[in-house]
Each structure stands twice: as structure tokens, then as C-alpha cells.
Automatic annotation (TrEMBL):
Gene3D superfamilies: Ribonuclease Inhibitor (3.80.10.10). Keywords: Leucine-rich repeat, Membrane, Repeat, Signal, Transmembrane, Transmembrane helix. Residues 1-19 form the signal peptide. This is Trophoblast glycoprotein. It comes from Alosa alosa (allis shad).
């Protein structure tokens, strides 16, 4: 009996080992498969069906498509970080009916097809795309994919470290359940109307380490549309000139919502460096306030308009000067024509008013 048990155990070990793809480590007990830094060119086939946690990282995989994850209906956590993936096809993750967390960080995504992140059961909760977008064209592809992939249950989205300089309008409008949005370490300079449309449930927004010099009234209205969001706004190159005043006033009123409000400081100009933005309203910036003097921009507009009108007047006089002889001739011609017409009317009047010539006029009419 004992030899048969040993043989069965060996067979089980053999089959378990055979079920694990080459270059991967499989643990049925932990329901985990790891294929880490094995220079894989594609997603390995034969991944066990029991797998819930799948880590394929640090390889040389260029693209992933609908055939990449066939039959892996139990996978809940999928990490594909640092694989140099440049293309994701539509419905790539369609077979991952239990997928909750997807990590694509550290890749080189240049082509993201529509519905790239769609899954039939809409179970995806966390999507990590940090340091993964190859160029600005990928941002437009991503915006389209976020709209078409039916990610209505997504709660966490990480887009940090992608060098983003803008966000397409309404890029997050179809992510109504989103609670955490990471936009740190990019190059964003402004937020526009509709940037955070439909994100009423957002609880955390990270905008640290970007290129914001201030937040204008349009951006402040966007923040006010996120009533439950904890904001992180530090480590931006804030420029404390007249344009910073609306933001400083808003920050003083909303400091409870800004996690790092006490650490927000001016970077420019040099005289204001490291000055707390909360205290900017107490520092004279030399700005014209309403009711305290004329608006500088309006004054500049009037001056510019006066210069333009003066230039047009000078050009008109110059043209008149160049054509003075022709203009003088035309005036004389008009004077002579008027004189001839006047003399004709005067002659006719004298004939009509002389009784001695009335019979001549009547004969002529007959």
C-alpha cells in the first residue's frame, strides 16, 4: 500500500510541475503564478486555471490581445508592470471575469484600442497606468478607451508620472464610481471646465508635483464640484503675483479639504519664495483692487486702441498728401461741372421769366 501512495504523490508533484509554464513559478496553495524577469516575449500559455494572482513583470512583451488571457476566469489581481507593452487591443481582458486589480505601470503604451479595458462583469476596481503612456497621442486613446470600456465600477485610477501636459475634456465623465485619482508627477498647467465632471464620489485627488502656477477661478469651480474629495496640491511652482489672489482666498476658505494646505508656498518671484500661500492676502502685491483705481488691463487696452487709431489717421493723411494733385484736379473738375449745370439752370430761368420770349417758348413747344 505504501509504495502506491508514494507513486501517487510523485505523480501529483509531476503533474503540478508540468502545469506551470516555463519561466514561471506556480503556487496552488497561494493561488499565485509569478513570471518575473524571464525575458518573455509574450504572455505564456498554460497558466493554471486556479490562478487568482498573476504577476508577469519585467519581461519583453510588446503587445497583448484577446488571446493573451484565455480561460483565466478566476484571476482577480493581474500585474503586467515593466514589460515594455506598447499596444493593448480591444477586449484584451474580456475573459478575466473576476478581475479587480490591473497594474500596467512602467510600460510604453502608444496604442490603446477602444474597449481595451472592458470586461463583461465590470468587476475592475483599480487600474494603475502610472509611468505607462508613451506619448501624448496615447492620452487621446486612453480618453476614448475610458469612455467606451464600461468602467462604471472603477474606484481607483493612477495616471501619475506620465508627463501629462493637459487632460482631454470630460476624460473621466464615465467613471462615476471613482474614489481615488492620482495625477501626481505630471506637467499639468491648468484645469478646465468639465475636467472632473461626474466625479461626485471622489474621495482623493492628488495633483502634487505638476506645473501649476496658480489655480484660476475655472479650476476652483472644478474643485468645488468635488464635495467629498481630499485634495493634495503641494510641490507646484506657484507664482505669487496678482493672479494668485483668488486661489489664496479660496485656500483660506477651503483649507480643511486640502491635505497639504499649510505646506503650499510661493516659488516665484524670488522676493516671495517660501511665503505661505495662506498668508499671501496679507502681503502687498501691488495689485489694483475693485474700487481702488482703474483696471490696468482696461487702461492698456485704451492706450493700444489710441495708438492704432492714431496710426490709421497718419496713414490716411499720408495717402491724401501723395494724391494731392489728383485730388485737386478732381475738385476743379467737379467745380466746373457744377458751374455749367448752374449756368444752364440760370439761362432757362431767364427765358421762362421774360414775357417777351414766352411766345417763342410756346411756339417751340408746338
Amino acid at each position: 500500500m505504501l509504495p502506491w501512495m508514494v507513486i501517487c504523490a510523485l505523480l501529483c508533484v509531476y503533474h503540478a510541475g508540468a502545469a506551470c509554464p516555463a519561466g514561471c513559478e506556480c503556487s496552488e496553495a497561494a493561488l499565485t503564478v509569478k513570471c518575473v524577469s524571464k525575458d518573455l516575449q509574450h504572455i505564456p500559455s498554460g497558466i493554471p486555471g486556479y490562478t487568482r494572482n498573476l504577476f508577469i513583470t519585467g519581461n519583453q512583451i510588446n503587445r497583448i490581445g484577446t488571446e493573451s488571457f484565455k480561460g483565466l476566469v478566476n484571476v482577480t489581481t493581474l500585474s503586467l508592470s515593466n514589460n515594455r507593452i506598447s499596444q493593448i487591443e480591444s477586449n484584451t481582458f474580456a475573459d478575466l471575469r473576476s478581475l479587480r486589480s490591473l497594474d500596467l505601470s512602467g510600460n510604453q503604451l502608444a496604442i490603446i484600442h477602444p474597449e481595451a479595458f472592458s470586461a463583461p462583469s465590470r468587476t475592475l476596481r483599480d487600474l494603475n497606468l502610472s509611468r505607462s503612456l508613451y506619448n501624448h497621442t496615447a492620452v487621446k486613446d486612453l480618453a476614448a478607451s475610458l469612455r467606451l470600456s464600461a468602467l462604471s465600477s472603477l474606484q481607483g485610477l493612477d495616471l501619475s508620472g506620465n508627463g501629462l501636459i493637459y487632460l482631454p475634456d470630460y476624460i473621466f465623465s464615465h467613471l462615476g464610481s471613482l474614489r481615488r485619482l492620482q495625477l501626481a508627477n505630471n506637467s499639468l498647467v491648468a484645469l478646465h471646465n468639465g475636467t472632473f465632471a461626474s466625479l461626485e464620489r471622489l474621495e482623493e485627488l492628488d495633483l502634487t508635483l505638476n506645473a501649476f502656477r496658480t489655480f484660476r477661478e475655472e479650476a476652483l469651480r472644478e474643485f468645488d464640484r468635488l464635495p467629498w474629495a481630499r485634495l493634495h496640491l503641494g510641490l507646484n511652482p506657484y507664482t505669487c503675483t496678482c493672479g494668485i489672489e483668488p486661489f489664496a482666498a479660496w485656500l483660506n476658505e477651503s483649507r480643511a479639504r486640502v491635505a497639504d494646505a499649510e505646506r503650499l508656498v510661493c516659488a516665484f518671484p524670488a522676493a516671495m519664495r517660501n511665503t505661505s500661500i495662506l498668508g499671501v492676502s496679507d502681503v502687498p502685491l501691488g495689485c489694483h483692487r475693485a474700487g481702488q483705481g482703474p483696471d490696468l488691463a482696461l487702461q492698456t487696452s485704451y492706450v493700444f486702441l489710441g495708438i492704432v487709431l492714431g496710426f490709421v489717421g497718419l496713414m490716411f493723411l499720408f495717402v491724401l498728401y501723395l494724391n494731392r494733385k489728383g485730388i485737386k484736379k478732381r475738385i476743379y473738375d467737379m467745380r466746373d461741372a457744377c458751374r455749367e449745370v448752374w449756368e444752364g439752370y440760370h439761362y432757362r430761368y431767364e427765358i421762362d421769366s421774360d414775357p417777351r420770349l414766352s411766345h417763342v417758348s410756346s411756339s417751340a413747344d408746338v
